[in-house]
Amino acid sequence: MRVGFPIILVNFKTYRESMGHKGLELAKAAERASGETGVCIAVAPQTPDLFRIASGVGIPVFSQHVDPEEPGAHTGSVTPESLKEAGVSGTILNHSERRLRIDLIEEAVRRCTSSGLLTCVCANTPLAGRAVASFCPEMVAVEPPELIGSGVSVSKARPEVVGGTVRLIKEVSSGVHVLCGAGITSGEDVSAAIKLGAEGVLVASGVVKAKDPLKALMDLAEHSIPS
């Protein structure tokens, strides 16, 4: 499934609102918003729902995590090969709620690339973003942990973090796309991020727990198009 920019990547986390049938309905709302606005919207469901959702919608589906192990005796691990078989387009890596050592991030990016999966690596600071950009993932998402789920967007509260991450990452590789996350809840938050040089956002509760997820998605998508 083709990924374009700007992108809105919706992390379902493990909220009840994104579980099972509700997760599929949320993914269909994302598909509708993407179709109506022309903006790429990708979703990252819970692992048990990946195959169902990837089979049920025509937008990119990401996993929330992947392990760098080769196929074999690794009970409980999620391999890139298994995600590819499930119809998944890519994966989030190193989210603040699922941190990885730097060497494991590098190996996971390498394994995903060789398996044909895209990677979005999370970083908590601009310097961390520069470090993981050297592994050449498709995307790096800067997310100060203290703002995640706060309702206070990084693009407004700490614009220097977004701008600084864009600058440092582009110095390493102009081909790495920079996203921002943490507290993104409105179209205005997205507009602010785009103006700072970001090429998309990583969102979660602002969509998943919204009273009207489709309305929330439309607002984010409509404001992600550079004016």
UniProtKB/TrEMBL annotation:
EC number in record: 5.3.1.1
Gene Ontology MF, one: triose-phosphate isomerase activity
Signal sequence, renumbered to the chain: none
Any Pfam family matching the protein: TIM
CDD domains (alphabetical): TIM (cd00311)
Pathway: Carbohydrate degradation; glycolysis; D-glyceraldehyde 3-phosphate from glycerone phosphate: step 1/1; Carbohydrate biosynthesis; gluconeogenesis
Any Gene Ontology biological process: glycolytic process
Keywords associated with the record: Cytoplasm, Gluconeogenesis, Glycolysis, Isomerase
Quaternary state and interactors: Homotetramer; dimer of dimers.
Its job: Involved in the gluconeogenesis. Catalyzes stereospecifically the conversion of dihydroxyacetone phosphate (DHAP) to D-glyceraldehyde-3-phosphate (G3P).
Designated name of the protein: Triosephosphate isomerase
Lineage: Archaea, Thermoproteota, Methanosuratincolia, Candidatus Methanomethylicales, Candidatus Methanomethylicaceae
Name of the coding gene: tpiA
